[in-house]
Amino acid sequence: MICKYCHLKTHFIDKCPTIICKKCKDIGHPQWLCKNVIDTKNMEKKYQFTDEIKKKQPEYVIEKDINYYLKLQHESWGNLLSD
User: Fold this and answer.
1) What Cα–Cα distance (Å) separates residue 49 from each residue in 42, 45, 58?
2) d(Cα 29, Cα 27) in Å, to the nearest integer?
3) Contact, 19 vs 30, CB < 8 A?
4) Which residues, 6+ apart, have CB-to-CB distance to 38 below 8 Å?
């Protein structure tokens, strides 16, 4: 008998005292044995995406084609850091 979570030989994963449930975040039982009912409307907003978190698009986009890089061919490294 060996626990696949904490690797102790005294119990199985179903009875692990240190395992954290992914559904209710309680310690002592795995998610497949969770008896706690969670209201999905009142869940933490920690895992939900909002418009604030999404990456904002830049106001202007520099198109970097071959001509852009040909202009940089004779520039010094110090001047390139400002881009």
Assistant:
1) 15, 8, 20
2) 6
3) yes
4) 23, 24
Query: Which residues, at least 6 apart from 24, have a Cβ–Cβ distance to it below 8 Å?
Result: 34, 36, 38
Q: What is the mean pLDDT of the chain?
A: 79
21 and 34 Cβ atoms separated by less than 8 Å: yes
Tell me which of 13 and 77 has the higher pLDDT: 13
Cβ distance 54 to 62 under 8 Å?
no
- Model confidence over 15-54: pLDDT tens digits? 999 999 988 888 999 999 988 766 555 555 555 555 555 6
